[in-house]
Amino acid sequence: MHPSIFDLATSHSKSPEVPLQTTLRLPFFARDVVDLNRSTDLLEISERLGKGARFILGGGSNLVVRSSPESPLPATVIRNRLAGIVRLSSEQPEVRIRCAAGESWHSFVMWTLSQGLAGLENLALIPGTVGAAPIQNIGAYGVEVADRIDTVHAWDFEKQDHVTFSSKDCGFSYRWSRFKDADQQGPWDMPRFLITGVDFRLWQAGHAPVVAHYAGVRERVESMGHTVDDGDGLTAHRIAHAVMSLRREKLPDPDELPNAGSFFQNPEVPNAFAQSLKAKHPAAPVFASGTASKLSAGWLIDQCGLRGFRVGDAGVSERHALVLVNHGGANAHDLLEVARTIQREVMRRFGVWLEPEPILVPPMQAY
Ligand code: EPU
Fold it and tell me: What's the pLDDT tens digit per position in 259-278?
């Protein structure tokens, strides 16, 4: 415990009374909580926490926490509430925007569109914060956030200083970055870097690359009575609306049915394996990318008949087999039981091991 931490300018409170939130809405209790409102408080927080366990919380949209009032997460949770958006440069048609890590991702995407900026429209409606976006390199409908990031700003707890990473230094790949890599980021309760803000490289509307090849996007724009390239500068808005309507149709809304988005990554397998799967199951979605192929985890789970499967109040969404949901009173134990059943069944039926996408804290050996 660090009693002196109560002196901090940023608010600090002791759990379990403090309600912590993840979008899965599993019970979440922690030893204590610091609300980080100003990046200038980080030195003080860092010095006061010293070697004490810490855990950084953004929007909680990619997180499964195992905790209870009797057994709170043994760490100080730093709730990242850093806010603010600034335009850094407008070397037309490119525009660089800096956004603080605690801002809501979707609100930020909507703000860029309201400013006549394009580049993030395919990533509309993804839950979570701007600071969480680079950690797992969020991606949807043919765009990954790595494609739009210029620089990531972070606090380095080891150096006790602010640092920056170029996009290249972030080590981005499919749902991955250096901030997920334990060798670079440290253990779950001693993360080295806290992301404070992100600089994006966007475009004035009408100058951005149009990404509308993903199944359903172009068709949805057309069904709204437009073509993607009407030449009136509204393409980004149209794609955002198409993406939002596709997401609302396919994925459960975390505000209505708590969930953490895709619960498993789409597995990458050797091309030969994918071809033999395709020979046995011609309907299986297979996306070849060079030497490897990506399979659809949602399809594999669906084929196992697990859509709607439940353990207690934890279950597989009826709408999309890749999404696990909390029907009300689920706990982490039930949810992990659902996840393990899926992993075992998909392995037994198809010989493929599904890797979870959300981060589990505290981690477990087998997950
Ligand atoms: N499918 C089924 N049954 C299901 C669900 C999907 O057969 O219950 C099939 C679909 O018919 C389709 C294929 O699986 O042929 C792929 O489904 P979808 O287009 O919904 O995309 P996904 O691969 O399941 C990925 C991302 C999503 C992202 C969408 C759109 C991952 C792990 N997930 O899902 O990201 O929104 O593509 O780009 O890469 C997230 O990360 O939380 C997330 C929602």
Answer: 999 999 999 999 999 999 99
Q: State the distance from the centre of ligand 1 to the C-alpha of 130, rounded, in angstroms.
A: 22
Model pTM above 0.85: yes
Q: Is the CB of 262 under 6 A from ligand 1?
A: yes
Residue 334 belongs to a domain with what CATH number? Answer: 3.90.78.10
For residues 113 and 225, membership in a common domain is answered with: yes
CA 286, 289, 293, 295 torsion: positive or negative? negative
Per-residue confidence band for 367, with pLDDT thresholds at 50, 70 and 90: low
Does residue 121 share a domain with residue 226?
yes
Using the mean position of ligand 1's atoms as its centre, give its distance from the Cα of residue 276 in Å: 22
Domain end point (choices 186, 220, 250): 250
Give the rounded percent of residues in the chain with a pLDDT score beyond 70: 94
Q: Compute CA 170 distance to the chain's CA centroid, rounded to the nearest angstrom.
A: 16
For residue 320, the enclosing domain spans 259-366
CB-hemisphere CA count at 13 Å for 184? Answer: 13
